[in-house]
Design goal:
This protein is 40% helix and 11% strand. By secondary structure, the protein is an alpha/beta fold.
């Protein structure tokens, strides 16, 4: 890369991401805040700091404006995202399809993805980027993505603790490793260079999950922030890509929401500093793909 790149992707799924288990009242509250306060706040911050982001959106969210069911339909929010400069709508599949779940297969995925791309197209959106639900990247399905016109996907960091596993079953030691890695440098900075793939679609790996505020770990919040800012600076100084991701509902509700928004403000303000000092730029997944393919 000619200069460092800061990429943000968001997994926009609402209740469709929780269909495999009962939706608790606390999660319902977080999702209502996501629509009513979280998305408008993020878009305001993105506009202020000139942030280009990819919103990987579950296709079923296009099926209503949210008045019928604000936890499952979000066309009003999608229109708000599109009205904000430099935002990309990607796909998170049509039904929040888990590509490593037991019992699923290529034909089911192909049908699901076709529906996702189709409903976006009917709303004037051309899907170019995909984020696989639960980060279950199935490389056997990438060719199907290509056939639907998708040019990039969010892969996982190159570390044992982030590896996608069949059935989506993750050992406890992996989850604990990821938790520790959010506060101290275990897996490295996870900033990377990108080259045009000789075949297939571009893998834009995740670098770090925006882990939400946890009152039981509040003492370690400065470490978590320092971890992300250190990664970002490393990427900016070495002309690498840094890819931060989260779900919009991760901002939470009430006091937790305020804490997470302040944490996000500090990250985005630091990006602005890196942009001035090192020329770091913000690109969404589609723009980054265009840049890589044009340069090679």
């Amino acid at each position: 890369m000619e200069r460092g790149v800061f990429t943000i992707s968001l997994d926009f799924e609402l209740a469709w991401g929780m269909e495999e288990k009962p939706l608790s009242p606390s999660f319902q509250q977080k999702m209502l805040w996501e629509v009513q306060k979280g998305i408008p706040t993020m878009l305001e911050l993105f506009k202020k700091h000139k942030i280009h982001a990819t919103w990987a959106t579950v296709g079923l969210l296009f099926s209503g404006n949210g008045k019928e069911d604000p936890l499952r339909y979000a066309m009003t929010s999608i229109k708000s995202i599109l009205s904000c400069p430099n935002q990309e709508i990607g796909t998170h599949t049509f039904t929040h399809y888990c590509c490593l779940a037991d019992g699923q297969d290529k034909d089911d995925f192909a049908s699901d993805l076709k529906n996702a791309v189709g409903i976006a197209r009917r709303n004037g959106i051309k899907i170019k980027s995909i984020v696989f639900p639960h980060n279950q990247v199935n490389e056997e399905y990438l060719q199907i993505c290509q056939k639907e016109g998708i040019t990039a996907f969010r892969g996982n960091p190159q570390s044992w603790m982030y590896e996608a596993r069949k059935g989506g079953k993750e050992p406890l030691f992996c989850r604990l490793g990821r938790l520790a890695d959010s506060y101290i440098n275990i897996s490295g900075h996870n900033a990377f260079d990108l080259k045009k793939p000789s075949a297939g679609i571009l893998n834009i790996p995740a670098s770090r999950f925006f882990r939400p505020y946890d009152r039981f770990l509040a003492f370690f919040e400065p470490l978590k922030l320092r971890r992300i800012l250190s990664d970002m600076k490393y990427a900016a100084k070495n002309n690498l890509v840094y890819h931060l991701w989260w779900h919009p509902y991760n901002l939470g509700a009430g006091r937790e929401f305020k804490k997470n928004v302040q944490f996000l403000r500090e990250i985005l303000s630091y990006f602005s500093e890196l942009s001035l000092k090192y020329g770091m730029e913000s690109l969404n997944m589609g723009e980054l793909t265009n840049k890589v393919t044009a340069n090679d």
